[in-house]
Amino acid sequence: MRGLFDWLDHRTGFRTLKHHLLDEPLPPGTGWAFTFGSLLLFGLTLQVVTGTLLALFYAPTPDHAWDSVRYITTEVRGGHFLRGLHYWGASLVVVTAVIHLVRVVLFGSYRAPRELNWIVGLVLLHVILAFGLTGYLLPWDQRAYWATVVTINISKLMPFAGEFVANLLRGGPDIGALTLTRWYGVHVLVLPPVLFGLTAFHLYLMRRHGISGPITERQGTRESFFPYQAARDLTVAIIAGVALAALAWQGAPPLEPPADPTAADYIPRPEWYFLGLFELLKYFPGRLEVVGAIVIPGAVMTLLALLPWIDRARTRGLKERKVLLTGLAAGVVALTTLTMMGALDKPPAAGGDWNVREQAGLALMSEGTCATCHGESKMAGTIDPMRVSKPRDWVASHLLDPQMIAPGLRTAPATNQHDNEAILAALARGRAGAAPVVSPDESAVAVLFNRNCLRCHLMGPVGGKEGPALTDVGTRIDEARLVRQITDPLSVKPDGEMQEFASKLTPQEIQALAKWLSRKLGT
What we know:
The chain folds into 3 domains: 2-344, Cytochrome Bc1 Complex, Chain C, CATH 1.20.810; 348-438, Orthogonal Bundle (Cytochrome Bc1 Complex, Chain D, domain 2), CATH 1.10.760; 452-523, Cytochrome Bc1 Complex, Chain D, domain 2, CATH 1.10.760. It has helices at residues 2-12, 14-22, 36-55, 65-74, 79-106, 115-137, 142-155, 162-170, 177-209, 225-249, 275-280, 289-305, 307-310, 322-344, 356-367, 392-400, 417-431, 440-451, 479-487, 489-492, 507-519, and strands at 25-26, 223-224, 458-459, 462-463. A hairpin with a 2-residue loop joins β3 (458-459) and β4 (462-463). The strands form 2 sheets. A two-stranded antiparallel ribbon has the order 1-2. The chain is mostly helical.
């Protein structure tokens, strides 16, 4: 083997490279606090690898982008894990970059002669955020589309060049095919070489000037990077990799419905690492929005860039940099607080409570005709109204003829038009992003409404008009009288036309229906 290694070294000089990479002398006391740079490099490498694999299946056009991401998630072997790794890996990179920045400030590692490397690191942070921003649009679902709309609108606030930048980001008058192609091109063609170049330059400057080491210089012999610091870096990378794998096993966040430019009521939400800025904008409405979007972030980044020249302390000691470090702590607390407030300030479910027909559709999907195949029989996948990817026309055709996609199906459930409308209404509400807010027993009662009562009575915006409206019936009639009305309507109103339901419903169903009506006010 020695002969082979000698041959390779003679032709490649790998021993010189190995010596340069592993035998770097480190200041005494260098320890775990200096592992974040290597962890960031690990995270960036993971993003490049997983992003390249995802690009093999991705189609960057509005007609196919959403379907290709769904295909990766549901059809490609290990696709949901791969997408999860890329998603959570982005969070790892952002978190590690911020911690690395805080560590550099805390240890004063930006001071001469490392000023240029500090500037390069700040530019790298912006490149990392640009990756997150451009990658956010690629799934082309509702969340991605409308978050991009907000981003482009914010870009318009830039002084003098706002409209130019917005047009540059859009690629045209509206967000569409050119926007997606442009953002994809930047994400996979422009940013990677910039990242590689800046990272290489950052590492070169770091090796040229050496690691700053602990705040207080310690006496002792310098030790090589390998094996002790290399072991620390490897340990941190393994721990982060295991954590990422555990998160990725659950996959990335669910894919929302395809982008719909007409859904003006959709409330956009950025990725978590932009929530702080998103929350800050709420405190500067109207014309002051430029302050939260441009002025404050710009001032913060300018102060950070000038930090090596602002810091005039004689040493890197903490006591001599009290004011500077207090400002750093205040900034970290402010950013963390804004991010947490943005995360807790979740938008309300679109459209409020589900109406009775939509509730009936939920129950029909989980307990009624759909459950014949989409249930415990496992003949077909389970139905989640919040994640249905098929268009409405396809679902409607399938409801009319279940064998359309399952030829030879023996138990083809027959659904009537009334049930079909309820299911489609529930799917439409689910795809709009409103979370179900109805309990199972109320869903069962809602099915009774759809199959019987709503043919004649109006409940909110749903139902017929032959009988009295039931919207606020609970304010006029108590539960006992409602039971009599449903069981023997003629005993309550001899000249009424309502038919009796004692022979069609069980006593338990009648009691549940009357109880639900008596408390369901203003539905």
